[in-house]
Amino acid sequence: MASLAPASFGAALAAAHDAAGAQHYPQGTLYVVATPIGNLADITLRALHVLQLVDVIACEDTRHTQTLLRAYGIDRPGARLLAVHQHNEAEAAQAVVARLAQGERIAYVSDAGTPGVSDPGARLAAAVRAAGQRVLPLPGASSVVTLVSAAGLVADGSESNTHNSSAFVFAGFLPSKAGERDTAVQALAQEPRAVVLLEAPHRIESLARALAVLGERRITVGRELTKQFEEIATVAASTLPDWFGADRDRTRGEFALVLHPVAVSGDGGAEGERVLRLLLAELPVKTAVKLAAEISGAPRNTLYELALRIRNGADGE
């Protein structure tokens, strides 16, 4: 829910009309509109203009959206709001398609952020496009790119590497069942690129314990992004449960997490792998990794990820 701190958006609405009013907004179009993830000021002028212009606003939660609109000074009667959420998206999409066929302009908003990114909206957009009608995106706030922009995603152990360390994979919410979640984490251990995760407060500690097996690989946690109590911290995966346990307030709010990239580069990486394989035949993982790093100079966290893959038979041998 966006922060509803007292503010006047009258000037913003006027600016939205001046800045975006002269643009073309075709009829029979679905406008996918990003809304703030916390701070009400993180709304675009074009979004404000479109939310006033469209015939209908389809939304994840009509009550939430009505509150958001009123905070901006936009008065839309309840009859102009259409509920489209995860439980009815397929059916509601057909009603949207029918309205678009009649030439209506319809905006779609989720409760916060960009629709279709771990929020409803993807099925709606697919149905509209399948019907041959236009989907027009209005970019804006997203917890995914917000955290990535602040995480400093440089491959662990190296200031430069052979692959693009700014590349990332969006995994969203991992499975809630422990066994399925652990399997998903093992898959993450084999992914050298950065991985962005989302999690709810009641499951964040369970996720932290599951991610701890990734050892020294860095994780940046974004809690309550853009809100009053925003917190961003980078810690080793193995220490993530302790980080949450150190302050109970850290388990409150909404979470985005990014698992930093890893890379083995140059001759040191090849030598590190050779030494590691020899040591793993005789020693426990942690000891083998420590010695292999000291002998070869390869990054310890990278060797740890490789050791997990070798021990789990995931490296193709």
UniProtKB/TrEMBL annotation:
It catalyses: cytidine(1402) in 16S rRNA + S-adenosyl-L-methionine = 2'-O-methylcytidine(1402) in 16S rRNA + S-adenosyl-L-homocysteine + H(+). It is found in: Cytoplasm. Residues 268-310 form the RsmI HTH domain. The keyword Cell membrane does not apply. Keywords: Cytoplasm, Methyltransferase, rRNA processing, S-adenosyl-L-methionine, Transferase. Its EC number is 2.1.1.198. GO terms for cellular component: cytoplasm. InterPro entries: 4pyrrol_Mease, 4pyrrol_Methylase_sf, 4pyrrole_Mease_sub1, 4pyrrole_Mease_sub2, rRNA_ssu_MeTfrase_I, RsmI_HTH, SAM_MeTrfase_RsmI_CS. GO terms for molecular function: rRNA (cytosine-2'-O-)-methyltransferase activity. The keyword Ligase does not apply. Residues 29-238 form the Tetrapyrrole methylase domain. Its main location: cytoplasm. NCBIfam families: 16S rRNA (cytidine(1402)-2'-O)-methyltransferase. Belongs to the methyltransferase superfamily. RsmI family. Catalyzes the 2'-O-methylation of the ribose of cytidine 1402 (C1402) in 16S rRNA. PANTHER family: RIBOSOMAL RNA SMALL SUBUNIT METHYLTRANSFERASE I (PTHR46111). This is Ribosomal RNA small subunit methyltransferase I.
